[in-house]
Amino acid sequence: MKKIQFLLALIFGFTTASLAQTKPQLTAVIKTPTVQCQECKDRIERYMSHEDGIVKINVDYKKKITTVTYLTDRTNIENIKTDIANVGYDADDVTAEPDAYKRLPTCCKKPQDGGGGKKQ
């Protein structure tokens, strides 16, 4: 009986300790001025959802902002901006990676490059 009580106390202790360790999260808003349409939104969200440390991402192409919640012990804001640039979009002061930008469909390119999103 004492062994069972000891095991239950041990399990309870480990469970409490593991729940008490909250991972530090931050939410950042990044200006993404080159997002044009729903395809841009989907492309960024799909790519970023696989990145280490990203908890949640939401691209608002009408307001041209991206809201990212991330784990501070796994990534940082500069890495996130670089990842967005690697998809082919500008992110705050980080410009889009040229080869990735060239691969974007026409609707996702800047208006001066013949692109522009469909009005929705």
Automatic annotation (TrEMBL):
Pfam families: HMA
Xref: SUPFAM superfamilies: HMA, heavy metal-associated domain
HMA domain: residues covered: 25-92
PROSITE patterns attached to this UniProt entry: HMA_2 (PS50846)
GO terms for MF: metal ion binding
Signal peptide: 1-20
UniProt key word Nucleotide-binding: no
The UniProt record lists the keyword Signal: yes
Domain of life: Bacteria
Protein name: HMA domain-containing protein
